Amino acid sequence: MLREDLPLRTNTMQHKPALYQEIIHALQPKRGGRYVDGTLGAGGHARGILEACAPDGQLLGLDVDPQALALARKNLAPYEGRIHLAQASYTTITKQLADLQWDSVDGILFDLGASSMQFDNAERGFSFMHDGPLDMRFGPQALMSAEQIVNGYDEKELAELIFRYGEDRDSRKIAKAIVINRPLRTTRELVAVIERASPRRGDRVHPATQTFQALRIAVNNELASVQEMLPQAVAGLKSGGRCAVISFHSLEDRIVKDFFREQSKELVNPLYERIYEVERKAVVKLINKKPILPSEEEIKENPRARSAKLRVVEKI
Ligand SMILES: C[S@@+](CC[C@H](N)C(=O)[O-])C[C@H]1O[C@@H](n2cnc3c(N)ncnc32)[C@H](O)[C@@H]1O
Predict the structure, then answer these.
(1) DSSP three-state, residue 142
(2) For residue 301, what is the domain's CATH number?
(3) How does pLDDT run across 169-218, given as a tens digit for each residue?
(4) What is the DSSP letter of 101?
(5) How confident is the model over 254-296, as pLDDT tens digits?
(6) Which of 188, 219, 250 is the last residue of a domain?
(7) 243 shares a domain with 199
(8) Ligand 1 test: best mutation among 115, 121, 249, most atoms within 8 Å of CB?
(9) Cα gap 26→199, rounded to integer Å
(10) Domain that holds residue 261
């Protein structure tokens, strides 16, 4: 089955978001606690957190997508008075906490990537299953659209982008075909070019999957944003507070894994034989050494959750 050729589900309140129970279990929201959802989407996880920290726990929700924010505002209306929503990037989390005069918080969640709502809206251009403009911007902060990259990068730059962010072995062939067939304006036009350049009969994954992933990462500067956000999130936690991150592809997961590992180690500097100076104590403790994955049951219910990986740390 093609990756996106799956029963369509909208990320509204009709179904639970990825690893929902696991997130509530990981963050253990409590009365009076303060929480951040850095990727609010439709507010599914946020609602779970708000329920669990009732009656007086509070939540700051961020999303760069004005459409997501409007939907979350509607969905979270019953929690008015306990929520603070901002159209902002999670890379500004330190500033957002300062604006609320919150020194530190009890839990922070990031559910990275695009929401089902974004995938399923053809106009956003995220999905190779729908015909729409080559956009792929999460929000207005994105520097350029996918169309500008596809029609503006030279062949070498395109090949590098598809290789680095899509890990596609046919990156050169695809880049060459794109350049020959430009200008390309729609997802369908791009898909047709990729299918001709890189036919993969019998493969489970559609040949456009990796190029679309690569473009989305580049358009939204996703990997650099995760790198920028992680230290701010850990710095913003109270002692005993937890940070939970769900990622959907290995490039993102590697950044999260490496950062959490590094922060969980004591940094020592050998002064001379057998004497060490501790330069930095461990900042966090890993709650799970291996990533938490969705259950078979969840994958059956929501096939898009199948590549989700959850990592959780606790501030020391
Ligand atoms: C997988 S969805 C989150 C779904 C959400 N957990 C729920 O329960 O509905 C990811 C969301 O993160 C948002 N997003 C992507 N990059 C962001 C960034 N740099 N800062 C804030 N939000 C971002 C996307 O717009 C999208 O709405």
Answers:
(1) coil
(2) 3.40.50.150
(3) 999 999 999 999 999 999 999 999 999 999 877 777 899 999 999 999 99
(4) T
(5) 999 999 999 999 988 877 777 777 888 999 999 999 999 999 9
(6) 219
(7) no
(8) 115
(9) 42
(10) 20-116+222-315
